[in-house]
Amino acid sequence: MRHTIPKIMLDRVSLPESAAVADSDAVPESETKMQAAGVRVTYGEKVALSGISMEIPARKVTALIGASGCGKSTFLRCLNRMNDIIEGCRVTGQITLDGQDVQDPDLDVAMLRSRVGMVFQKPNPFPKSIFENVAYGPRIHGLFDHKEDLERIVLTSLERAGLLNEVKDRLDEPGTSLSGGQQQRLCIARTIAVNPEVILMDEPCSALDPIATARIEDLIDELKSNYTIIIVTHSMQQAARVSQFSGFFHLGELVEFDSTEAIFTNPSDTRTKNYVTGRFG
Amino acid sequence: MSPTQTWQSRPETARRLQQRHRRNRLFRHLAATGLLLAVTALVMMLGALLTASSEAFTETRIKLTVRYDRPLVDPRGDASPESLEEGDYTAVIREAALQLFPQVASRTERRELIRLFSPGAAFRLKERLTSHPELLGNSEELWLAASADADQAFKSGLTGKEGERLTPFQTHLLLQFQERGALEQSFNTTLFTASDSREPEMAGVLGAAAGSFFTLLVTFFLCFPIGVTTAVYLEEFAQKNRWFDFVEVNINNLAAVPSIIFGLLGLAIYINLMHLPRSAPLVGGLTLALMTLPTIIITARAALLAVPPWIREAALGVGASPLQAVMHHTLPLAMPGILTGSIIGMARALGETAPLLMVGMVAFVVEIPQGFLDSATALPVQIFLWAESPERAFVAKTAAASLILLLFLIVMNALAVVLRKRFEKTW
Fold first, then answer.
1. A16-64: per-residue pLDDT in tens?
2. Model ipTM?
3. Min Cα separation B358/chain A (Å)
4. Which of the residues A190, B9, B120, B367 has an alpha carbon 20 to 30 A from that of B150?
5. Looking at the complex, does the CB of residue A44 fall below 8 Å from at least one CB of chain B?
6. What is the mean pLDDT of residues A165-190?
7. Are residues B317 and A82, on separate chains, in Cβ contact within 8 Å?
8. Which positions in chain B touch A73 (Cβ < 8 Å)?
């Protein structure tokens, strides 16, 4: 099957209806998408996170910063229960998505992950074609009735991930043939193809060069009007550039959580101040 | 020593460096010697097999003009298949040969003359006449298989010395045939179209090959699904607890159990307990499956483990269930490795003799097995049987059968390589 896009197709590319209603200005400042209360994570004997509580605002970018091994990635993976697949990992405390308990044993984890998508540190496209990479989520969730619908979803997703123009002539080529930055945008397209509400990003730019990083950051900025984004990053500059809220993790604790502006200009904790000013970390 | 001299320029350093280079060279030489030894051994083995088997690939044939005399081949006189079945075809050959040598008169000499022909020649005439009844009463010219003794004597040049199993009169007769252009060597098709026989010139490997084929079919269709499912379960779903360790250790140990033990197990379970038929490919296959299963599980697990974990994470991240992640991504990516491991396991099963001896697949089987419940033997067992036979001609047959078995193994291993190259994906 060859996926060449007719000119007409490209004109028809549009956002899915459910996402199109989203408008960041219409959302009240206080709306909370996800909430964590007293989250504690242990790997066997080792305590990775102790009592994390935070409220993640809807349709904003929340950055989790901190030194390596401080638990920020572990916390991120709690939000879509990616820690389930890690042997010996135990999560206690409460995490809710729109008030619904994420930890509920009766909850379908696959459905949760379709609502809370994830972009990983290393770009990880499937060793399949670009088209199939994006089509995979819609396929397993049965999000379309006709082939044309699937094509529309794929093209829309690629468009919103800012990749369509670069790959529209080679949708049949393997996703792994793209450059690192393109691969990461392909992974973002794959994530948004199932129309999630929250996107978790685990250091999405750490394997990319500065130009590719800038493109991803622009993309994050565009995406925040439709999605709640939580990004783990090593780079404080990146946190400052893309996020509206920031949480500083230190040795498994959430030291401070506030608006990014406050964290960077007027931190209340000295450890946060030392970290953001580059004195340690 | 000046203070500016660095450790890199000291004499000790030069000595150490020299030693290091010497060790490198020594290792390279040792490795090359080892490789050379291995290649020599391989060449010697193949050379020995080829030389030993060369005789088995040709057969000696004698030309006769046979006449399907009604009184001889149609004793009931009604030309019915049953009547033709009872005909005396040895007599037909004898008459035809006597036509050529009218001087042969005494009973002893006539017996010696007929013993130049393989018993298979009479069978062949019977088969020809029953399938072409219109030949009844007519004559035709045929090349008939010579007996093993005549074959041996002809291959060693009819000197009368080497072919000492022939009487001087028989040697004389063969020379007569040769003079008349009625003696030739041709490619031995019997070796590939016949099953086992007491007569070396009538014995072939097809029966054993068919037995091996049915056996391996059972083994594969049992081992592959069970082995892969087990590997997927252990690698992707099972809790890594004490019970898991116990199972893992046992599977690894099973892979190292001597094959004859599996043979005994097969005998005890399938034949004594379940009363399945002895000597059947079904039982042989079930027994070899016991032996091959651990190998397939271990290689499949290794192949699954080699798939990068982020492929799995990517699938789970878009909301695939663990089963979907395995079926859509991990397993297809591991498949080349799993197939390679399975084929190598099957190749091992193909070469296995001991377990088959225990379940009775060591029988003398003249019929070519047609199914899973027919009595059968397998290629390596056939080699074992022929190696034990006293007739000299079986020496060459044994070597030829070994070559054929080796050929099968090479083909299977090549298939493994091809499949790997074909389906391997890079990421």
1. 444 444 444 444 455 899 999 999 999 988 999 999 999 999 999 999 9
2. 0.84
3. 44
4. B367
5. no
6. 93
7. yes
8. none
What was the pLDDT predicted at A10?
44
Q: Are residues B348 and B259 in the same domain?
A: yes
The per-residue pLDDT for range A191-212, each reduced to its tens digit, is: 999 999 999 999 999 888 999 8
Q: Within a domain: residue B39?
A: no
pLDDT in the model for residue A27: 44
Instruction: Compare CB distances from A126 to B316, B329, B426 and report the shortest one's residue.
Output: B329
**Residue from the list A113, A120, A122 with its beta carbon closest to the beta carbon of B319:** A113
CB of A144 less than 8 A from some CB of B: no
Q: State the residue range of the domain holding A81.
A: 26-126+175-276
C-alpha–C-alpha distance, residues A83 and A93, integer Å: 14
- pLDDT higher at B71 or B264: B264
User: Does B166 lie in the same domain as B225?
Assistant: no
Q: What is the pLDDT of residues A226-259, one digit of tens each?
A: 999 999 998 888 999 999 999 999 999 999 999 9
With cut-offs at 50, 70 and 90, classify the pLDDT of residue B134.
confident
Domain-located, residue A138: no
Q: Are residues B163 and B213 in the same domain?
A: no
- Would B46 be classed as within a structural domain? no
Distance between CA atoms of residues B344 and B348, nearest Å: 6
- B77 lies in the same domain as B161: yes
Lowest-confidence region among A2-6, B87-91, B157-161 = A2-6
Which of B188, B222, B241 marks a domain boundary? Answer: B188
Kindly determine whether residue B313 and residue A190, on different chains, have CB atoms separated by under 8 Å: no
Are B319 and B404 within one domain?
yes
The reply to whether A179 falls in a domain is yes
| Contact status of B242 with chain A (Cβ, < 8 Å) | no
Is B32 among the domain residues? no
Beta-carbon separation of B319 and A85 below 8 A: no
pLDDT of residue B2: 56
Beta pairing class for A228-232 and A198-202: parallel
Contact B314 A187 (CB under 8 A): yes
Residues present in chain B in total: 427
Average pLDDT for A136-158: 93
Residues with Cβ < 8 Å from A39, sequence gap 6 or more?
A49, A51, A52, A53, A75, A78, A91, A92, A93, A94, A95
Say how far apart CA A258 and CA A8 lie, in whole Å: 46
Give the mean pLDDT of B255-273. Answer: 93
Q: Tell whether B139 is within 8 A of chain A (Cβ).
A: no
Q: Which two tokens stand for residue A73?
A: 């990635």
A77 in B contact zone (CB under 8 Å): no
Structure tokens at B126: 């019977």
Q: Residue A196: which CATH number?
A: 3.40.50.300
Which residues make Cβ contacts (< 8 Å) with residue A11, sequence separation at least 6?
none
What's the total number of domains in chain B? 2
| Optimal mutation site among B242, B318, B335, B425, interface A, most CBs of chain A within 10 A | B318
Q: Is residue A14 part of a domain?
A: no
* Number of structural domains found in chain A: 1
Q: CB of A193 within 8 Å of any CB in chain B?
A: yes
Alpha-carbon distance values, A183 to A133, A186, A216 (Å): 10, 5, 11
Interface of B with A in 320-339 (CB under 8 A): 320-322, 324, 328-329, 333
State whether B99 and B212 are in the same domain. no
Of B188, B222, B244, which one is at a domain's C-terminal end? B188
More confident residue, B113 or B79: B113
Nearest to A236 by CA among A267, A215, A197, A211: A267
Of the two residues A1 and B213, the one the predictor is more confident about is B213
Domain identity same for B219 and B363 = yes
Asked if the structure places residue B180 within a domain, the reply is yes
**Edge-to-edge order in the sheet of strand B58-67:** B139-145, B58-67, B183-187
Q: What residues of chain B lie within 8 A of the CB of A120, using their CB? A: 310, 313-314, 317
In the predicted model, what is the mean pLDDT of residues B4-32? Answer: 92
Residue A189 forms part of a structural domain: yes
Write out the residue range of the structural domain in which residue B164 sits. Answer: 55-188
Q: φ and ψ at A159, to 5 degrees?
A: -60, -45
A118 contact B CB<8A: yes
Cβ separation A193–B310 shorter than 8 A: no
